[in-house]
Every structure is written in structure tokens, then in C-alpha cells.
Design brief:
The structure is a homodimer of 250-residue chains. Chain A is built from 7 helices and 13 strands. Chain A is of the alpha/beta class. The first copy, chain A, is elongated and about 55 Å long. At the A-B interface, helix 1, helix 4, strand 5, helix 5 and strand 6 of A face helix 1, helix 4, strand 5, helix 5 and strand 6 of B.
């Protein structure tokens, strides 16, 4: 069998953040599958078939990729950011585990990318410069009680936090509850960063305190970063820097 | 002032994982500063001065970079991985905050890179495919009690975990204690991944259960990933895949 699957991270949007490894995989591919806006980032060329699909069909898309690879195609599954962070890698492995045994002979590789929280952190300074966690705030695939428990415990442990999928039209209430939980666990001066469309032309980064934060500051294009209790702002004439110091006092 | 500082992530080691943005910054630089093995990855060329320094001098190195930029130099501070994850970005901002006011007019940019935990996760499958946290296990700059509290709370919240700097010659006991804490909080079948020198020629990835894990499986070149309770292995003739499913049952 000469086919393969490579699950590739395209980074947050700017082409200067796509690794040469991913560019090389796309150059070798016969087929690219992925969510419509990510496939739209791949240049058309003779010999390459683009298969764009809507979101919420991650398992169908994964099965399609594995079937084509089993037939000898060289398939790149594109994700934004890093495919291993709330993206396509876990979906492909779920499909593989539950699929025919022959799929276990297909070479499958994950090609890492710049994930949204790290691109957002870089733009703001270094808010994730010390211990931090990443939480998917969508309760489509997990009970809200699990999200709430995780939020409370990581706040109590004083991690910085990055939230993916903070708010969508179909789940407007989750981020409202998230802010309520944070207000119970953290001080009002806690810094929150709303980073929308990072590295893209419409990038918008907003710094607020927990007291100032409102639910409408986030949408599905936003990654939210909540600092630890030590996260601070450096005021500068050319714009603020938000960072978390490396040291934790006794 | 025409000088600037760019704090750039070189990724885990393989040049195919360096972003074009970082490559372009290095091409424009007059000076590169960083820890000896990272500066060694930058090609020499006329007009570029390389300033390699030992580790544990992060603040000196940051001050040096800012001083040179204030004099008009174009300075790249190189980090391995991502500069915002347990690397140079926070150190540069500490130096900037505590330095002369004029340093606040220097353009400073962070250029993200592929951090070790995401490169390691990609090699193994998708162990960080759901909520996860990143913890620096070094107690050089924080009390051990903080590390222990964080380990217990994130284990109770059932996050996957990535550990940076798990073990050094001067701190052999920290990872021993870490495994003891994990054994108190998690089941013996919990999966642990020891990923050494990821993406480099001497890469070595080892999968163990918590029951099998021993302290000598980690060193300073290793990133350790502990799965959540849902993290699983797919057995394949061509090697195992470790991944964390996207769904958490009720």
C-alpha cells in the first residue's frame, strides 16, 4: 500500500506561520480534505483534488481520508492551528480505531502547527509564560459539569488558562457561566485577553480585567486567555505587553 | 530608533518545523542571542553576530538583547520550541519591565514556534486531543508545594498533562515525587509518554503505564505527557497510536 494520511496543522491563518513540513506534505498530496475555510487556504494544482466539507462532520471526513489512503492516495487532512489541539487528529484516530483492521496498516502522521493560543499569547506578550491549561469550552461532546469542575480546580491551582470555542450562536450561555465561575474563584483585577482572528488581516486583541469582561467579547473566532494571579501588564507608549513572570514567590 | 527585538521559536530541533516568519527574522537580524545549542542552529553569515551564552543567564541575555536594540541593532533572541512556553519571552519582558524607560519604546515581537509538547504529541498520535495542561516541573523559580498542589488538582480534574524540565542532575528528586503524587491520584493503567529529543536524529519515544514508569525514563531532554483517564492506545502492526478521544461520557 503506497497511500498515507498526514494530518497537518495550517496554523492560525497567516501563511508565514505554516511550517515547511506542512508545505512539503501538501506538495506531495493527491487529495486534501477538511473544513471548507481551511481547504480554501490550499492552492489548487493539477493532480490535487480538494474535498471541502462542513464542520460537525469530523468522523465522516476522517473515514473518507482513510478510505482514500487505503486505495493508495496521498491524503492531507488539514486543520487550522495544531491538529492535536481540539482539531482533526483525535477524530482521525477515532475513525481509525473503529474502522476495518486494514486501516491499521495505513501510515498516518500528525504534522504539528502553531495553535491559536500560542499565536495569541505571542501577540500579547507571554501570558502563558508559566504553568497553563487549555480547555475546550464547547459542551457538544462533554457534560457542562466537567467543564465547570475543571475551571474551578485550575483557577484554584492558579494556572493561566486558554479557552478554545468559548462561545457560539448555538451555545451562548456557556461563556456567561464561565465568567460567573471565574468571578467566584478569581479576583476582579485578573487579566483576560480576547484574541480574535489572530495573524489574519482582521486580527483584534483586547485586554480586560475580569471585572470588565463581558460575554460578547468572545465568539467562535476568539481564543480567550485568562492570566494567573501573577500575570501583569507593562504599559508602553507603543502598546501594552501582558506577561506571566517565570517566578512564583514562596 | 530603528532597532528591534524579535523573540523567536526555533521549534523542537528539525529545521522543517521552523516557521517562515522566524526564518525571515533571522535573515534580517544583525545579532542573535541565546543559549549555546540554540544559537548553534543559526547559520553564520556576513553582517550577523552570534552571541551564545550558557543557560541560567536568561535575564543577562535579555538585557543584552534590549541594550543592543536600543543602539539600533536588529536582535533575534532564539528559544527552542515556542518562546512563550517556559522559554525566553517572559525573561525578556521581565528585563524590559525592570529596565530603563527608554526600553519601552523598542519594538518587541514574539514569533511563535512548535513547542515540545505539541511536537511530542504529534509523534505519538493525539494524547493532548482534549483538555490539557502544561507544567514546568523545575522548582528553581517556584516552591515545590505549588507544583504538588497543581499536580493534584489537575489530576482530580482529569486533564492530560505535559511536563517540561521533568528531571535534571541537580533536581533528581522532583520527578520521583511527581510519580508518587500521580500514583496517589490516578489509576495504575494511566498512560505516560516519555518523548526525548523529538524531531531530532536521536528521537526516542516510549509509552508506559503509570505502574511501569520509573524516574530514569525522563531527563532534561524529555517532555513527559500523562494522559487523562480516557487516553487510549490503538495497537497497529506499524506501531501504536496514543490518543485522547474528543468526547467525555456523562
Amino acid at each position: 500500500m503506497s497511500g498515507w494520511v498526514k494530518i497537518a496543522g495550517l496554523g492560525p491563518g497567516n501563511e508565514a506561520l505554516v511550517t515547511p513540513e506542512v508545505t512539503a506534505a501538501l506538495a506531495e498530496a493527491t487529495d486534501v480534505v477538511g473544513y471548507i475555510p481551511y481547504v480554501a487556504r490550499v492552492a489548487e494544482r493539477p493532480g490535487l483534488t480538494l474535498h471541502a466539507s462542513d464542520n460537525r462532520v469530523e468522523i465522516d471526513r476522517s473515514q473518507h481520508a482513510l478510505r482514500m489512503a487505503a486505495e493508495g492516495k496521498r491524503v492531507v487532512v488539514v486543520s487550522s492551528g495544531d491538529p492535536g489541539v481540539f482539531a482533526m487528529a483525535a477524530a482521525v484516530f477515532e475513525a481509525l480505531e473503529n474502522g476495518p483492521d486494514t486501516w491499521r496498516e495505513i501510515p498516518v502522521e500528525v504534522l504539528p502547527g502553531i495553535t491559536a493560543m500560542l499565536a495569541a499569547a505571542a501577540r500579547a506578550g507571554a501570558p502563558l509564560g508559566h504553568d497553563f491549561c487549555a480547555i475546550n469550552l464547547s459542551d457538544n461532546l462533554k457534560p457542562w459539569a466537567v467543564i465547570e469542575k475543571r475551571l474551578r480546580l485550575v483557577a484554584q491551582a492558579d494556572f493561566a488558562m486558554a479557552f478554545y470555542n468559548p462561545r457560539s450562536k448555538s451555545r451562548p450561555e456557556g461563556f456567561v457561566k464561565t465568567l460567573e465561575i471565574l468571578r467566584q474563584e478569581c479576583e476582579p483585577e485578573r487579566l483576560i485577553l480576547f484574541a480574535r482572528a489572530v495573524s489574519r488581516p482582521d486580527e483584534a486583541i483586547r485586554i480586560a480585567t475580569l471585572a470588565e469582561a463581558t460575554p460578547d467579547m468572545a465568539d467562535m473566532q476568539t481564543v480567550v486567555i485568562v492570566g494567573s494571579s501573577l500575570t501583569r501588564v507593562i504599559d508602553r507608549p507603543i502598546g501594552p505587553i501582558v506577561y506571566t513572570p517565570r517566578s512564583t514567590p514562596e
